[in-house]
């Protein structure tokens, strides 16, 4: 569906390259996460992919067509939601939608979308009266206006309360179920974990790691079992190697004789992997 080959990009005013040879492919129906520390080049890549920036080196294909050679049909078939919502604040939400709807040949079911994100009741309110979370939800509706085949989402749940974030994530999953393809950036690792089929970690304009969240967890996870049990009123914690765990008599004895509180494998989180791969902690603004 989407193929990026050896992408390089330098901002005209800069000396150094921002994107230093990125390659990846996204299959139809796949949700692909693009993760990395601030300044790694995520937004720059996204802007190149949606043809906001040109003068890059390398090639980008959408449905086997070089995007440099596709005309308006490209914009007809993609939906974009940037982190900072941009709407006409002196117009109502519905007026905003109607304005943008006219730009497209294909239109989605607006009432259904607005009801789903919980904005139907407030559709005639001025956007200036909308809260930050409402603007973000309206932004998502805008990305879906033309019933796109592929979505580009930059931090789509950032600034939403857990309930609204869950609704948006469910909508993204439904979009995928209906055959849609998604390119997504986020700092919220649990969202990425729940949504993405594959993720790429980008550091300083290069992809450092790319795989399914499960494979990454297996690769970076500690192969251990951690056991917590009660003894003389105190909690004791012991760790055992996963290999040969079924024959480990000490471990088996504890299981049979102790009052077990918890038992889990040393699976690592995407957050741990992020810090390991990028060498940079997550910023949760
Ligand atoms: N218009 C521009 N002109 C020159 N340099 C830019 C421009 N936009 C971004 N940069 C630089 O390019 C690099 C990558 O920025 P980019 O916005 O792509 O990072 P990011 O990974 O999206 O970061 P964040 O997570 O903070 O949004 C940074 O060093 C940034 O200063």
UniProtKB/TrEMBL annotation:
This is ABC transporter ATP-binding protein. One of its GO terms (molecular function) is ATP hydrolysis activity. Keywords: ATP-binding, Nucleotide-binding, Transport. Residues 2-229 form the ABC transporter domain. It holds the Pfam family ABC_tran.
């Amino acid at each position: 569906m989407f193929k990026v080959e050896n992408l390089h990009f330098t901002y005209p005013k800069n000396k150094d390259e921002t994107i230093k040879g990125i390659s990846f492919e996204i299959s139809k129906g796949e949700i692909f996460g693009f993760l990395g520390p601030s300044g790694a080049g995520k937004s720059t890549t996204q802007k190149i992919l949606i043809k906001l920036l040109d003068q890059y080196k390398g090639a980008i294909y959408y449905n086997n067509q070089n995007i440099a050679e596709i005309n308006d049909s490209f914009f007809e078939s993609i939906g974009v939601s940037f982190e900072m919502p941009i709407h006409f604040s002196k117009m109502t939400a519905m007026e905003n939608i109607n304005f943008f709807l006219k730009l497209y040949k294909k239109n989605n079911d607006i009432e259904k979308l607005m009801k789903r994100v919980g904005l139907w009741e407030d559709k005639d309110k001025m956007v200036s009266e909308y809260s930050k979370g409402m603007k973000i939800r309206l932004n998502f509706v805008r990305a879906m206006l033309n019933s796109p085949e592929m979505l580009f989402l930059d931090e789509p749940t950032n600034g939403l309360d857990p309930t609204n974030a869950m609704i948006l994530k469910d909508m993204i999953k439904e979009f995928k179920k209906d055959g849609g393809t998604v390119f997504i950036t986020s700092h919220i690792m649990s969202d990425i974990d729940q949504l993405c089929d594959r993720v790429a970690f980008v550091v300083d304009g290069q992809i450092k790691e790319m795989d399914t969240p499960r494979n990454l967890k297996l690769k970076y996870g500690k192969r251990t079992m951690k056991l917590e049990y009660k003894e003389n009123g105190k909690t004791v914690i012991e760790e055992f190697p996963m290999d040969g765990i079924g024959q480990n008599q000490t471990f088996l004895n504890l299981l049979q004789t102790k009052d077990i509180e918890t038992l889990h494998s040393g699976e690592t989180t995407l957050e741990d992997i992020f810090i390991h791969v990028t060498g940079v902690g997550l910023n949760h603004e």
